[in-house]
Amino acid sequence: MSSTIKSPWLIHYDASSCNGCDIEVLACLTPMYDVERFGIINTGNPKHADIFLVTGSVNERNSRVLQQIYEQMLEPKVVIACGVCACSGGIFKECYNTLGGCDVAIPVDVYAPGCAVRPEAIIDAVVQGLGILEEKRLAMQAGTFVAAPKPAKVSAADKQVDGQTVRDNALRQTLEKENSNVA
Ligand code: SF4
């Protein structure tokens, strides 16, 4: 078994969380859940991390930070969206400055919903992430690995589709596809 599977290191970034989900991430490290006993270490260095835990919704400014952290992580790597804000923008989705969940900025492998996300859901997402890490590692060994494509750039201007303000990334892509079919 690879050392990656045995002891994944993770990096946590608070995009614009209300801190509810961040407290639950920290709870995973406390004696109650104690994920360090499985070798899961919270590191501050993206180059040391296998798993990227993101909490909070994404806006123009933090999308660039998210992308920088993501790009500094070495492959294979896994991104976990922790909490409904990181999954989709959550209750902040319709705010003027919110672009959506973290998948508008970087590719996401596992979605762990909840408001706040429960520690059990975070641990479950990390376990799912381990399987994905292993698949990516094997693909790299076999020479068949393809890095996940970057999401289309989203900005406040991008949200204007056919005169409508569209803040939902999936809906925006659907409308753009429909528009291109008509043209
Ligand atoms: S999902 Fe809920 S608890 Fe987590 S950051 Fe958003 S509002 Fe806060």
- Estimated radius of gyration: 17 Å
- Major sheet attributes: 5 strands, parallel
Ligand list: iron/sulfur cluster
How many DSSP helices?
6
Averaging pLDDT over every residue, what do you get? Answer: 86
Distance from first to last alpha carbon? 52 Å
**Which spans of ≥5 residues are poorly predicted at pLDDT below 50?**
none
User: Structural class, please?
Assistant: alpha/beta
CATH level 1 name of the largest domain = Alpha Beta
Strand content: 15-25%
Corresponding CATH architecture of the largest domain:
3-Layer(aba) Sandwich
Task: Quickly list its features.
two-stranded antiparallel sheet; globular; 2 domains; 38% helix; 6 helices; alpha/beta; Rossmann fold; 183 residues; 16% strand; five-stranded parallel β-sheet; binds iron/sulfur cluster
Describe this structure in words.
With 183 residues, the protein is α/β, with parallel strands linked by helices. The protein folds into 2 domains: 3-146, Rossmann fold (3-Layer(aba) Sandwich), CATH 3.40.50; 152-183, no CATH class. Helices cover 38% and strands 16% of the residues. It has helices at 3-6, 20-29, 60-72, 84-88, 119-142, 169-182; strands at residues 9-14, 41-42, 51-55, 58-59, 78-82, 98-100, 110-112, 160-161, 164-165. It has a 5-stranded parallel sheet with strand order 2-1-3-5-7. The chain has a two-stranded antiparallel sheet with strand order 4-6. A hairpin with a 2-residue loop joins strand 8 (160-161) and strand 9 (164-165). The radius of gyration is 17 Å and the shape is globular. It starts with a helix and ends with a helix. 37% of the residues are buried. Residues 17-18, 20-21, 55-56, 83-85, 90-91, 115-116 line the site of iron/sulfur cluster (SF4).
